[in-house]
Amino acid sequence: MASGKVGRFFLKPRNIAVLTGSILTIKLLPDFFPKQTTRPFIEAYQNGKICNLQDSQLEEFKEVCKTLGVAKADKYQTFVTGRWQIGASGSPWLPNGVHFAIPIHFVDNPDTSSLQLKGKSDGAMKERKIFKESFKLSKSARQFALAVETARIESGLPILKACLLPLYFLMGYATSFAILPTLNFLPPPVAILAIGSVYFMCYRFSIGRINESIDFSMDKKVANLSPEYANGGLEYVETILQRNIALRGQLENGKKRFSYYGNENEGVFYSAHARLTERKDAIKTIVDDNTKCPIE
Fold it and tell me: Which phi and psi (to 5°) does residue 85 adopt?
């Protein structure tokens, strides 16, 4: 009885329309309301007060926007985050603009005293030193990271990517009418679950490939801006690799999270980012080309 109701529910166009709209709304909420949905969870606090952005951080971000030719730089609201990576949500074309999180250590002389890793052996001491040094980036490395995230937001790809899950949901619904008759040996809810699982795996695989493509295309775009950006990009990616290698040896689940070379271990069907070693090789090619044929 219950299984029949579930099957009939998923085969009604009205219910599918409501579910598709709900999925799309949830996926787009962080971009339409970044201040309410994202910023409160990643903004940095110190002694119960919000950390203010340093003048140097703001100037570096303005330089990046000018270099990229950002048309609506005033739509970017920058703030400090305690996380290690830059984060941004929203769109310059939406009413609430973009909320852009700049890591607290993105300064010339970051305070790394609070960063601790366990272990007292010589190997652990070396890894701890590498870990702390990984937060000390040159200006060109910091600006490369800022530029990559800004270029990603400016491309509008995050908004389009959010629409992919509802699209796959509709595709699964549309094709279910043709597939269900061939699965008549299964109860309707089981057949629907099987179809949905296949499409969900396809979605995860597609979104992973899209994430990788975005990383490579943004890296290439920013690295080609100037030799300084290319060199900064190489430094930035190499630094993250060294940090991950240090974490691999110190965290309890380090070997599970990071590979021997410093890449993050992704799932079979999904990857949040391109492999760092591949990004490094791609940027290094641009750096080598600049060395052979200097840009005037």
Answer: -115, 155
Tens of pLDDT, residue by residue over 267-288, are 766 778 888 999 999 999 999 9
In eight-state DSSP terms, residue 262 is S
Q: Using CA atoms, how far apart are residues 152 and 86, in angstroms rounded to an integer?
A: 12
Measured over all CA atoms, what is the biggest interatomic distance in the chain, rounded to whole angstroms? Answer: 75
pTM: 0.87
Sheet holding 76-81: strands in order across? 76-81, 98-103, 87-90
Tens of pLDDT along 94-112? 999 999 999 999 988 887 7
Of all residues in the chain, what percent carry a pLDDT higher than 90? Answer: 36
The predicted-structure confidence for 10-27, as pLDDT tens digits, reads as follows 667 787 888 888 888 999
The span from the CA of 89 to the CA of 103, in Å, is: 15
Q: What are phi and psi of 106, to 5 degrees?
A: -80, 65
Supply 64's token pair. 């990046």
Q: Are 64 and 154 in contact (CB under 8 A)?
A: no
The 3-state DSSP class for residue 195 equals helix
Alpha-carbon distances, residue 38 vs 56, 73, 273 (angstroms): 24, 20, 20
Question: In the chain, where are the structural domains located?
Answer: 2-292
